[in-house]
Every structure is written in structure tokens, then in C-alpha cells.
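REQUEST ID: PR-0412
SUBMITTED BY: lab tech R.K.
PRIORITY: routine
TASK: structure prediction, single protein chain
INPUT:
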Amino acid sequence: MTNLEIEAFLAVVRLGSITAAAQAIFITQPALSRRLQTLEDELGYPLFRRGKGQRNIQLTEEGKAFVPVAERWRQLWRQSREIAGLSHRGKMTVAVIGSINTYLMPPVYRCFLRRFPGSSLAVTDQHSVAVYDLVASGQADLGLISDDRYVKQVDTVPLFKEKMVLVSGEDAVFPEDLRPDQLDPSRELRLPWNPEYNRWHDYWFGGAQPHVYFDQMALLEDFIRDSDCWVLLPASIAGALLNRGGLRQFPLQQAPPDRIIYSVLGQKEENMLAGSFMTILKEILAQNPWLELL
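STATUS: complete
OUTPUT:
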């Protein structure tokens, strides 16, 4: 019996459904169901009544009796972790794609370090594939990616989505009902946001060569401010750049699909700080008007 299984059980008790509980503790529904099944196997009795088409979870008599036991277990677990924290507060390693790291994560990191002042935070800037590898191998406790895929022993959970918007210099002129086929691809500053965006881009622009192709966000802002180019950006990035002046956002018909960002966590016993980090992350992201939490 592990703390992960206890937390899964109490989350279902508190929220009344597998779906809500899985979202609350940032794992997939199958992963949550596996934890509950493992707990029941270890205890030797069922905790929930399961029926076909049943939406809300109902506790068995054994499950009702186990609730206070589980709560005491969680309290003792937390107390034992606090003892370990007398000498050190642990290390948290986060692997994040570049655009998220640059424009959204700094306030999250600062808040985390304020709440856990004795902890050590390591941040690495990676592509989605590398993030998966780091989390799967245990070299990172948590990752944020835009290109979701199936990777063994990694849980991928949608975190938020945002619109893709057109941005250019403040002196640029575009028609009010601008369509993608009216954009000049030779003036594009191109970034490969995710597979869905790439398919949209191929449909409208085919093999046309952009003015500049960027693998990372680092140089984009200087280029767009010093040229008559245009770029399609996630709304959160566009908002950050527009606040600095010198740029404008333009309406675009038949715009690209929303960009979705996913959190990735290993399925093994995770760093206890990971759950706290995710709570802080969602608190900060919820304050961003450009994002829609999932």
C-alpha cells in the first residue's frame, strides 16, 4: 500500500467520480483505476461498488470503514515526510518546451521556491520528445509538452489550450477579413508549434519557404520587430509580446487549431513535490486570460 494509492482513493471519495478525481491529481483515468485496483488487491476487499453505466462512485461497507484509516495513513505519511525535510527539502526537476518555459513558467518557478524555500529546483529547456525521455527515465519529475504521444510508463494529461493568432509590426496593413491564402509565405517567421499546426500550415502554404525558420523562440522577437514579416503565435506568447509595444495582432479567418499543452508524469512513485508543483502551476495559469485550463 503506497501513498499514491491512498491519495487516489481519497480523491475519488472526495469528488465522487473517477473522472473528477483523475483530473484533480493530474493523472489519467486508467492510471487512477490501476491504483485503486492495486489497493483493493492488497487489502483483500472491494472499496467501491462498480456497475455498468454507473457515473457516481459508491463505497462498499468496507470502503466506508476504510476512509478514516486512509486519512490517518495520509497524515502519518505527511508527518514522516516532514521529518525528512528537517535536513533537506528535496529536489524538483522540470523539463519544459522552450516557448512555455520562456513566457509562462518564470512566475510558477518563483512561487514554488517561495512556498518551498529549502527545495532545489532544476529546469531544463527541451523539445517534446526529449521531455518524454527524461520523465520516462526518471531524470525529470515533471514535463510540459505540446506534441503528445504514447510513451510507456508516462502519463500524459491535457493541461490547457490557447488560440493561435497572427502578429506583425505595428505598421503592417492587412484586410479585415484576412484569410491564410492572402498571406505572403515569403514574409513568414515560421515555428513548428505542434503536429496539428504543421498540418494546417501544409494545407495553406504547402512547401513554400518562409523568410526565417526558427527551431526555438529565442530570436523571434528581434526579427519581427525589425521587419515587415508576420508570424502565427499562441495567444499567451502574443499577449506577452504585444504588451511590450511595437507589434499588432490581426484577425485571421480559418485560423490554425488551438494549441494544447500537456503535462507528463512518470507512473512510478513520484517526487512528493511534483503534486505541489502542479497545484502552483494551475493556480498561476488560471490567472492568464489567454489560456483555458482543461
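NOTES: The first strand starts at residue 48 and ends at 49.
REVIEWED BY: pending
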